[in-house]
Amino acid sequence: SAVISQKPSRDICQRGTSLTIQCQVDSQVTMMFWYRQQPGQSLTLIATANQGSEATYESGFVIDKFPISRPNLTFSTLTVSNMSPEDSSIYLCSVVRGVGYTFGSGTRLTVV
Amino acid sequence: DAKTTQPPSMDCAEGRAANLPCNHSTISGNEYVYWYRQIHSQGPQYIIHGLKNNETNEMASLIITEDRKSSTLILPHATLRDTAVYYCIVRASLVFGKGTRLSVIA
Questions:
Q1: Which one, A31, A33, B28, B99, has the greatest CB density within 10 A?
Q2: Percent of chain A at pLDDT above 90?
Q3: Where are the beta strands (DSSP E) in chain A?
Q4: How far apart are CA A93 and CA A102, in angstroms?
Q5: Is B92 within 8 Å of B1 (Cβ atoms)?
Q6: ω into A8 cis (within 30 of 0)
Q7: What are B16-74's pLDDT values in tens digits?
Q8: What is the 3-state secondary structure (H, E, C) of B35-95?
Q9: Is B91 in Cβ contact with A100 (below 8 Å)?
Q10: Residue B2 above 70 pLDDT?
């Protein structure tokens, strides 16, 4: 399975600011997925990022709030913009390669 | 998209088999069933997957009913480290339900 490095592992941010989360995969993958996990909840898919095209967002998520970059087949970033306390969550990237999905260790974001 | 339904929580005695059910009655013929688990504060970990036949690996066994509308994940000898939230998902949907919180009790 793929190895995913996700940074930062955690951060505490002021409301109104933005945070960019990086996801690096050890091999080329076509699609990368970004999930959010709010406290005590399950994972919710934010968007699917394909290299060379705009990300596809799920219902309830918009590009202005969660812009995504996918400059190559091994890297993606997710930005959480104009943050509010409601954005406090764990954000995870995921890829499919071989068997099933592989997830990064997540970024624990706290907005104060 | 196929959705899944799981009991919210289960307890299991250490050393006993843990049987975690999942209902996926709207699954289509070419969709695989995947099981993941999430130990506190970590990313989900792949456990096992299957299409029609029962599957076994070093972590668990997966029993899929003949009509494919439900499945059961079996941890044959649960340990305290198996305490986690277990998710059953249908790959094509990328949708995680609420999962089952398994507590293994000494």
A1: B99
A2: 84
A3: 4-7, 10-13, 19-25, 31-37, 43-50, 56-57, 68-72, 75-80, 89-96, 101-103, 107-111
A4: 9
A5: yes
A6: yes
A7: 999 999 999 989 888 899 999 999 878 999 999 999 989 999 999 999 999 999 999 99
A8: EEEECCCCCCEEEEEECCCCEECCCCEEEECCCCCEEEEEECCCCHHHCEEEEEEEHHHCC
A9: yes
A10: no
Nearest beta carbon to residue A105 from set B43, B46, B95: B43
- Among chain A residues, CA nearest to B49: A100
Nearest to A43 among B41, B46, B96 (CB): B96
Nearest residue to B1 via CA among B95, B93, B98, B89? B93
pLDDT at A45: 94
Residues of A in contact with B45 (CB under 8 A): 103
In the structure encoding, which two tokens stand for residue A78, read together? 């997710």
